[in-house]
Every structure is written in C-alpha cells, then in structure tokens.
Amino acid sequence: MPNIVVGCVVAIVSSALQSTGLTLQRKAHIIESFQDTNTARTNAQILWRVGVLLFVASNLVGSGIQLVSLPLLILCPLQAVGLVFNSLFASILLGESLTSVSLLGTGLVVLGAGVVAGFGALPEPDRSLDELIKQLTRSSFLLWFLFSLALAAVLALAAVRRKSHESKGVCYGILCGILSAHSLLMAKSAVQLLLHAAHKGFKDILRIQFLFIVALFALFAVLQLYFVNNGLKYASTSILYPLVFCVFNLVSMVNALLYYEQVDTLKGYKVFAVVLGTVMLLAGVFCLSGRLDTGPFQAEERVPLIQNIGTSEYTSLHNIHPGVVNPDVPASRLTRMRSYRNHKRRALSREESQILHELGS
C-alpha cells in the first residue's frame, strides 16, 4: 500500500509538471509569433526550452516510478489528471477562461480517480519471465488479446474504406485506444522483468521472449502515435480524446483483470466502485476536453485562412472593415486580399492579448 500511495503522488506531481511544460511551450510559441524583437524571440526560446525540459524529465522519471509502483487498474485512470492541470495552467498562464463546465470536469476527474485508486488497489506480485509468459499464454487472456487485435485490424481497414470523416475519426480513435492499452501492458511487463532481474539476476532479460515483449511495446507505441495523428485529421480533439481515453481505460481494465488473474480478487462492491469511478472519470474527461477544441480564436472572431498562391503565405481573413458585415460584399476579392496582407497580423485572441500586454508593461 505505501508503494501505491507513492505512485499516486508521483503521478499527480508528474502530470502537473508535464502540463506546466506544455503550457510554457505554447506560451513561447504565442510570444514568438507576435513579437518580432530579438529580446522577445530570445525570451520565447528560453521559455520553450524550460517547457521541453520539464515535460521530458517529468515524463521519463514519473512514468518509470508509476510503472513500478502502481497496479494497472489504477495507473490508467490517473492519466486523466493531466487534463485537470492543462485546464488550470491554461487559465493561469495563458488567460483562458475557466468555465463552470471545466470546474465540473475537474471535480469529476478528481473524485473518480480517488474512487478507482481506493477500491482498485490490488497487489501485483513480482514475476519471472517464465511466469509472465505463462500469464500471456493463458487461454482467457490469449483469446481476449487476439480478439482485440483482430478488432483493431478490422477498424484499420474500415478507416481506410470509409468516406465519412466522422466515421474515420471514430475508427482511428477506438483503434488508438486499443493499441495504447496493449502498449502500456507490454511496458509494465518489461519494467517488472527489469525489476525482477535487478533482484534475481539478469538471465531473463537476455532471452528472446523478453526482447519479443519489448518489440511488441515499441510496435504498439509507434502504431498508436500514427493512428492518433490520422484521427486528428478527421475528428476534433473534443471527440477524439474522450473516445481514446474511454477505450484505453476499458481495454486496460480487461487486460489487468485477465493478465494478472484479478477477476476473482475484486469483490462485488469493489467492482461497482471501480466501474462508478471510471464512469465519473470519463464524464470529467468529456467536460474537460470540450475546451481542447477551442483554439486561440473564438468562432465569431475568425474566418477560414486563404493561401496566397503567389507567395505561399497564409493570410488570416479577419474582417478589418468595421462597416462591412460580410467581407465578400461589397469589396472586391483582390482589394480585400491586399488590405489583409498589408494588415500583416491576424486579430489576437484573449490569451494572446493578455500575454502581449504583460510583455509591454
């Protein structure tokens, strides 16, 4: 139990540091985009480097400790804590509004993660490579594993053949969730074997079976990145992120119960509590990911970008004529494009205006 408490604390702290790093990188990009001075660019580069360092260091150290100390059933839901910190730091550092929906999502994620951590804390004993191979080849887990991979293959084929963007996005989202869960399982197995080798000798990690587990982890990790990038082409983050997270959690829970033979360990009320906590988590993720689809501009503040073919320059067609409601009428397209090009900059969002105001003060 002390290891689980330490793992939960590390998960929360590392999520906070990762979110801080990502937010600092975003702030650096905003500063660099709208400040042309050498001083501003230098400050932006320093800010970006600090953000990258925070993100990479907290990711490497935090993930390693979590994989060692946390059961799979707790490890997966805790990933949602990062969304809470993303929302919080975007409000503090970028000036984004913290809405009532964001606050509701924060409460649901915190409460749901607490319930899952409290009732899903099941011990995962140290196992040798032979014992893990035995777990992998058990009929119940093997059937589930092969079924999920077959489903992933069908989804990949369906995503290619579908013409609807929404259908493609959903297929890629489910596919990414399945592969993410299996990637995490292989990573945890590899870390457990390394930990076992540190105490009992390194002969296990020199065997071909260990290399096979590592290869599966690498394959699933690369494929999930590829498919999530494809998914982002066809679905908004407010749809894709909750979908991936939902599938990831469900598949990971089944993996944990079958791979570690924990089906009989969870009693009736614990099963109910874990399911309830997971539902609360997913609801919170849906609330928090709604803000992910809100880019730096509000819908009423922006119109599509048009590419200037002659200069390969993207120009924001924000209406700079206050008396003209529709920029297509009455001004000619050529006159408008010239005036927009001379305008040089697009209209700033609230967060960008606030950052520039801080720089100028």
From TrEMBL:
SUPFAM superfamilies recorded: Multidrug resistance efflux transporter EmrE (SSF103481)
Topology relative to the membrane: Multi-pass membrane protein
Keywords attached to this entry: Membrane, Transmembrane, Transmembrane helix
Signal peptide: none
Name of the featured protein: Magnesium transporter NIPA4
InterPro entries linked: EmrE-like, Mg_trans_NIPA
Organism taxonomic ancestry: Eukaryota, Fungi, Dikarya, Ascomycota, Saccharomycotina
Record GO terms (molecular function): magnesium ion transmembrane transporter activity
Transmembrane intervals: 46-66, 72-94, 101-121, 141-160, 172-195, 207-227, 239-260, 272-292
Record Pfam families: Mg_trans_NIPA (PF05653)
Major site of localization recorded for this protein: membrane
Subcellular location: Membrane
GO cellular component terms attached to this protein's record: membrane
Organism superkingdom: Eukaryota
